[in-house]
Amino acid sequence: MFAQVENPFPLKGRAEISAAFSYQSFKEKDSEERDWMWVLPIRGGYYLNQYAGIFGEIFLTDFKGGEEEEGESGRILSLLAEFGYPTANRGVIPFALVGYGVSNGSLFLDRIALKNYSDVTLGVLNIGAGLKLPVGDRVLLRGELRYLNFSGSNGSEKIDISFNYINFLIGMALVL
Q1: Which terminal CB of the chain, N or C, has fewer other CB atoms within 10 Å?
Q2: Nearest to residue 130, comparing CAs of 89, 88, 78, 82?
Q3: Percent of all residues in the chain with a pLDDT value above 90, rounded to a whole number
């Protein structure tokens, strides 16, 4: 099935902690003010074998809209499964991930999709893919494209929302 290659970066039984970053600046069509948002996902997990691991992640966000508005902080807590295939000669490690989490809904969604709701908890589907590049024996540089789908409820009231969000993240991981 798969060709056997020498294991350039052994992962089985090792833990990984990582952080990444993304920044966005955008402007609504009829507005003179710019909005911005930064994202900081922090994750930790364990490799079950050379190809798969389980990770917990907190996805922190901060949104600032216009000059007069205060920033809004958000959180997504997720459980992720990651699958990767190390290439020969300590090269690039392509990976994919899938998982599910919950969010307090305080991303910029409050201004767009959730204007009429308060105290919202959203479910978040995570799907991503990227590349890791080993730098030394324990450090990986990482780039990742992440798709998030938010859906949710307001207490016992079902909110009919499905909001998609795509983010490109750049970061670093430490393999322990």
Answers
A1: N
A2: 82
A3: 38
For residue 170, list its beta bridge partners: 21, 143
Name, in order, each residue with C-beta under 8 angstroms of 80's C-beta and a sequence gap of 6 or more: 43, 45, 54, 55, 56, 57, 97, 98, 99, 126
Domain ranges of the chain: 15-175
76 close to 56: Cβ distance less than 8 angstroms: no
Cα angle, residue 50 at apex, residues 44 and 51 outer, rounded to 5°: 80
| Phi, psi values for residue 150, rounded to 5° | -100, 135
Q: Looking at residue 102, what is its pLDDT?
A: 87
Question: Structure pTM?
Answer: 0.78
Residue-level pLDDT at 115: 47
Cβ count within 10 A of residue 91: 13
pLDDT in tens, 64-86: 765 555 666 778 899 999 999 87
Architecture of the domain whose range is 15-175: Beta Barrel (2.40)
**Average pLDDT value over all residues in the chain:** 80
Closest to 37 measured CA to CA, from 64, 7, 56, 3: 64
